[in-house]
Amino acid sequence: MRNVIDQVPKSLAIMGGTFDPIHYGHLVTAEAVRYEFNIDQVLFMPTGHPPHKSQENITHSEHRYLMTVLATATNSHFNVSRLEIDRKGITYTIDTIKDLIRIYGENVELYFITGADALSHIFTWKDAEELLKMCTFVAVTRPEYHKEELIEKVEIIRNYYQSKIHFLEVPALSISSTNIRERVKKGMPIKYLLPESVENYIYKFKLYL
Ligand code: ATP
Ligand code: MG
Q1: Alpha carbon separation from 206 to 158, 182, 195, 202 (Å, rounded)
Q2: Residues near 115 by Cβ (< 8 Å), separated by ≥ 6?
Q3: Which residues form a coiled coil (predicted)?
């Protein structure tokens, strides 16, 4: 199922995340990558059951999915995929990439966006080598993470795996979902950290209390 996208994009960037909740850091990053690499569509991919995050503390996938839909509704280049949240068992990125190739065809040019923190774990990912050959990686900066370290890591991965991986500096927004959850719990404002539609959704369903 190709979801709501009826035109086959030539290039597609996957923006994976827990999105618990999605915030402006994610949106600014995705838009910066889309523009820089002239990408047709960014597909936001809320995670299902990631091997490295404990499930108990993660908000139900349906809430995370809907918040991601609300946040991306105003950008015609953004879409949200249910692939990972609908898949049973532990989620591995390699399975998602293989599914996307099945859905969009062999010719689609795939990009995978990863933040400075996520990139550090790449060597522990399942079938990392195959994964790095199947799509172009874009490693983006994130406040609180050293830019120079990220550039170094990108170099190491590029040389070690002979893979296509780019570094991109994106506008620095010191926002994290963890911080937003903490702020809601403490009754502090979260306005201007995430789209208003997502803020209203959080209050409507009393998330993060
Ligand atoms: P949490 O605090 O729950 O881990 P998070 O804010 O880190 O949430 P994730 O859903 O874990 O958000 O992140 C998804 C992707 O977005 C990761 O690749 C992460 O590095 C990137 N990302 C998250 N926040 C930012 C930000 N402010 N700037 C740049 N990249 C970000
Ligand atoms: Mg995170």
Answers
A1: 44, 13, 17, 6
A2: 29, 139, 140, 142, 145
A3: none
Quick count: other Cβ atoms within 10 Å of Cβ 79? 20
- In terms of Cβ atoms closer than 10 Å to its own Cβ (0-12, 13-18, 19+), residue 124 is exposed
Comparing CA positions, the residue from 199, 143, 136, 208 lying closest to residue 176 is 143
Q: Tell me which ligand sits closest to the C-alpha of residue 18.
A: 1
Instruction: Show the ligand 1 pocket: residues with CB < 6 angstroms.
Output: 17-20, 25-26, 29, 114-115, 117-118, 140, 142, 170, 173, 175-178
Q: What is the C-alpha R_g of the chain?
A: 17
Q: How many residues does the chain have?
A: 209
Tell me which residue has tokens 């790449």.
122
- Is the ipTM of this structure higher than 0.85? yes
Range 11-174 classified under CATH 3.40.50.620: yes
Distance CA 30, CA 23 (A): 11
2 contacts 103 by C-beta, under 8 angstroms = yes
Q: Which ligand is nearest to the CA of 120?
A: 1
* Tens-digit pLDDT profile for residues 31-88: 999 999 999 999 999 998 767 666 678 999 999 999 999 999 999 999 999 999 999 8
Task: Give ∠ CA 28-19-128 in degrees, rounded to 5.
Answer: 90
